[in-house]
Amino acid sequence: MPKFEYAPAPESRAIVTIEKSYGLFIDGAFTRPKATFPTINPADETVLAEVSQAGPKDVDKAVAAARRAYEGVWGRMSGAERGKYLFRIARILQERAREFAVLETLDNGKPIKETRDVDVPVAAAHFFYHAGWADKLEYAGLSASGADVPRPHGVVGQVIPWNFPLLMLAWKIAPALATGNTVVLKPAETTPLSALLFAEVCQQADLPAGVVNIITGDGRTGQALVEHPDVDKIAFTGSTDVGKAIARSIAGTAKKATLELGGKAANIVFDDAPIDQAVEGIISGIFFNQGQVCCAGSRLLVQENVHDQVVAKLKRRLETLRVGDPMDKNSDLGAINSKAQLDRITALVEAGVAEGAERWSPECTLPAKGYWFPPTVLTGVSQTHRVATEEIFGPVLSVLTFRTPQEAVAKANNTAYGLSAGVWTEKGSRILWMADQLRAGVVWANTFNRFDPTSPFGGYKESGYGREGGRHGLEAYVTTAPSTLTGTAR
Amino acid sequence: MVTVSTTTRTAQDLTAQARDVLGVSRLTNHALTSWLHGLPGVDQVGCEGRAAALGTRSVKTTSKAWAIDTAIGMIDLTTLEGSDTVGKVRSLCAKALVPDPLDPTTPRPAAICVYGDMVATAKAALGDSGIHVAAVATAFPSGRASMAVKLADTRDAVEAGADEIDMVIDRGAFLSGDYLTVFNQIAEVKQACGTAHLKVIMETGELVTYDNVRRASYLSMLAGGDFIKTSTGKVQPAATLPVTLIMLEAVRDWRDLTGIQVGVKPAGGIKTTKDAIKYLVMVSEVAGDDWLSPEWFRFGASSLLNDLLLQRQKLTTGAYSGADYVTID
User: Domain check: are A165 and A238 in the same one?
Assistant: First the structure.
C-alpha cells in the first residue's frame, strides 16, 4: 500500500439533471419521446436515460426545419448577427461547464479530469473562435480576390462519434453556423446526452428555431440523414468503414463531404529526445481518453539504442497511472465506452500476443462492473503484426523500433492511415525535416494530442479528407459559386 | 526525530567515486562536461505541463490530514536575516518544540535553519529534542568568497554543533563551464562537514534553464551532496514545481545508476498548505514512497508552518480559526 493514498474525491453529479427520456430536438423544440433505447454509463452499466430512435420521417422533419431556417432567417442574417449567437453559445457553455463535464463523463466513461480540463473548455473555444470569423469570411482568403464572397452550402448533415461527443459537436456546429449553414446533427448512439443538453443551450441562446436540429439514433438514422436528398453537405467523424460507405452513398450527387476517419499514428522517439517528457508524451498520446482517439499515438517508434531505457521509464511511469471511477478527480483513465469496443480491444490485443508481441500492464484493480481495460504496452511488435496496422482505439501501445531517421519515416508512413504523428528530438532541423516527410495531417513536435481551434485537423489516405478548424476548416462549409438564393449571408 | 545516516567522505574518496561513475582515469573538466552534456535534455513546455498536471490532484480528508502532518515534519524552519538575534532564534526554536500550543499531537519540524553564528544558540535551545540544527555556510547566499573562507565558514558551523550544512555552489563557475571547480568545492565542503549532512544549494533561479538544473543536480550528487536544494530564498524565482520535478527525476535516476539515495529540498516561496501538498504529490508520483520522509525530503520555509497549522486546526475542529490562533515567532 502506498504511503500517500489519495482519498476518494468524487465530483458531485447533483449539478446535472438527466431526464428519464428524451425526444428529438427539431425546429427549436423537443418532440415526444418514442421508439426509445437506453443510454448507459459505461463505468457501471446503469441506465442514464432513454433516448429516441429517429426514423426516416423524423429525419425528413429535421432536414425540412433546417431548410426553412436556412432560407427564412439564418442564411439571410448578417455575419455580425450570427457571430453574436455563437458568442452567446460559447459563454453559456463556459457558464454551464461543470454540468457538461459531469454529463459527458457519465455518458462516455472518460475521467472528469479530462471533460473538465479538455472537452468542455476546448468546445467553448471552438465557438469563440468561429464566432470571430462569422463577419470576416470575405477576408479568410477562401475565394480569389475580386470573386464573389464565400457563401454557405445550405443544410449540413453531421454525424459524430462517441469518443469526444461534445467536442466533436462543437467542431462540427461552430464552423457550420459561423458560415451561415443550418445543421442536422446526429450524435453517436452510445453518447447522445451532451448533444441533447446542447439543444437546451440553443434554446437558452434564443437561436432561431431549426438552425440546429439534433436527432438521436443508431447507424440507420445516420444513413437516412446522409442519404437525404435535401442535405447539401455531409460532415462525418468516425470509423473508416462508415466513412467509405458515406463516400459511396453520396457519389454522383451534388453533396459535398468532409470525412475525418481512423488513424494509426506513429509517435517517434529519437535517442536525443528529452526522455522524461517523451515518456509523458507517449502516455498522453495513447492513454488520453483511454486511447479512444483517432489521432492517438498508438505506434511508438523508438530508436533502437534507447528502446530499453524508454520502455523501462514508461513502465515505471505507468505504475502511477490511476485507473478507476471516472467521476473521481484523481482518475487518469476511465471506462471503455461500450461493450462492443471493449470486445474489439480485447480481441486485437489477443491477436497481437498470438502473433508474438509481449504484453505488459501495470498492476491495477479494475472495477467489477462496467467496461474496463488496463493500460497495456505491447513490446516486440513488428510492422506485419495486426496491432501495428489496425486501429485498436483503446489504451494499448504497440512498441516498434527503428535505426535511422529514414527508417523512422518509412515505418511511420507505412500505414493505410495518415492522421497524425509525433516527433521527439532536441534537434530542431530534424523536426522540420520529419514534418516535411511524414504523410500525416498533424505532426506534433515534442508534444502530443494538442488541440486548438486555430489549427486545422484532418488526414491523409484512409484517415479521410477535408480539414476542420482554423481558416482551412471554414473552406468545407462555404462555396464561392454564385448563390441561387437572393440575399444570403455576407 | 529525524534519522540521518552519517558518513564521512574525503574529497579523494569522492573524486575516486566520480571517476568510477564516469568511467574515466582522471577527473577533468572535459570529462565532466561530456558527462553532464550527455544527459537527456529537458523540454521546457513538457516539464512545466507535467508539473502543472500533478498540481491538479485532489487531496482531501484523510489524505490531506496525512499530508499536513508529513509536511510539518519535513520543514526546515528557517530564519536567515541580517537582523537575526539570539532572541529571534530562541523564539523560533520554541516554536519548533511546540508548534501548536493548542494541540500537543502536532508533529515537530525536522530542523531549524540559521546562519553559522546562531548554531550554538539554536543547539542550546533545542537540547536533546531531536530537532536538527542546519546552518547555511560557504559565504551564503552568493558564495563569492575564497575556498579558504568557505571551508572555515563550514568548519565553524560544524564545530558549533550543526547537524546539517546548507552550502551554495559557485554559480559563476558553473555558468562559465568550470564544472571541475564546482565539483571540487562541493567535495571539499563535504569533507569539512565530517559527519554533518550536506545540502547543496544550486540557486536554480540563477541557473535559469532546466537543462542547467539537471546538470547541476547530477554534479552535486556526484560530488557527494546528501541533499540537493533549489534556492537560498534570496533570489527570485526560488523553488518552483517544475524545478523540483527535474530534481526529483535526478535523484530517482541517480539511485538507479549508483545505488545511492540523495534527498531533495525545495526552499523559498512555499507558503501555503496547498503548495506543500502539490510538492508531496510530486515526490510520491515522481520519486516514489522512498522519498516521503524528512530523511529524504525537506521544505525550506518560514511562513509555511503557520498555514499548515491553520489547516490542521480546520481539519481537527471543523472550523477555520484565523491568523491570531497561530503564533508569530
Answer: yes
How many angstroms separate the CA atoms of A257 and A159, rounded? 11
Q: Could you say which residues of chain B have pLDDT below 70?
A: 1-6
Q: Could you read off the pLDDT of A35-78 as tens digits, one per residue?
A: 999 999 999 999 999 999 999 999 999 999 999 999 999 999 99
Count of structural domains within chain A: 2
Q: Where are the domains of chain B?
A: 11-317
Q: Residue A137: inside a domain, yes or no?
A: yes
pLDDT value of residue B4: 52
Domain that holds residue A117: 21-261+464-479
* Digit-coded pLDDT (tens) for A127-156: 999 999 999 999 998 887 667 789 999 999
Q: Which residues of B touch A (CB under 8 A)?
A: 40-43, 45-47, 49-50, 56-64, 66-67, 70, 249, 280-281, 284-285, 289, 292
Q: How far apart are CA B219 and CA B182, in angstroms?
A: 8
Flag whether the pTM goes above 0.80.
yes
Q: Write down the ipTM of this complex.
A: 0.94
The CATH number linked to A107 is 3.40.605.10
Contacts of B58 in chain A (CB under 8 A): 6, 9, 329-330
CB atoms within 10 A of CB B176: 10
What's the fold here for domain B11-317?
A: TIM Barrel (3.20.20)
SS3 content of chain A, % helix, strand, coil (to 5): 40, 20, 40
CATH of residue A297's domain is 3.40.309.10
| Residues A309, A332 within the same domain | yes
The pLDDT tens digits of the residues spanning A363-378 come to: 999 999 999 999 999 9
Say yes or no for a CB contact (<8 Å) between A4 and B50: no
Question: Is A245 found in the same domain as A207?
Answer: yes
Whether A310 is in a domain gets the answer yes
Q: Do B63 and A113 touch (CB under 8 A)?
A: no
Contacts of A152 (CB under 8 A, 6+ apart): A70, A75, A179, A180, A181, A477, A478, A479, A488, A489
How large is the C-alpha radius of gyration of chain A? 22
